[in-house]
Design a protein that fits this description.
69 residues, mainly alpha, 3 helices, 65% helix
């Protein structure tokens, strides 16, 4: 897998994940919506850790800077 996420993109996803998890465990968001958001937070965290987003590759999008040689 080729990295396609910048550091800013990764940090943003981790912050959003932390907010979602906090909202879920404080019962601000619950039920089906809470479960779906918690799963989304898991996906955001995983993609941030590996620096690869499958949707970005499908659409040919990348926020990672290209290194010039």
């Amino acid at each position: 897998m080729k990295k396609n996420m910048s550091s800013a993109d990764r940090i943003t996803r981790l912050i959003i994940s932390a907010i979602i998890v906090t909202l879920y465990f404080t019962n601000t968001v619950s039920g089906t919506a809470g479960t779906i958001l918690l799963a989304l937070a898991g996906v955001f965290t995983l993609t941030s850790i590996i620096s690869f987003c499958p949707l970005y590759s499908i659409f040919g999008f990348s926020t990672c800077s290209v290194k010039q040689h």
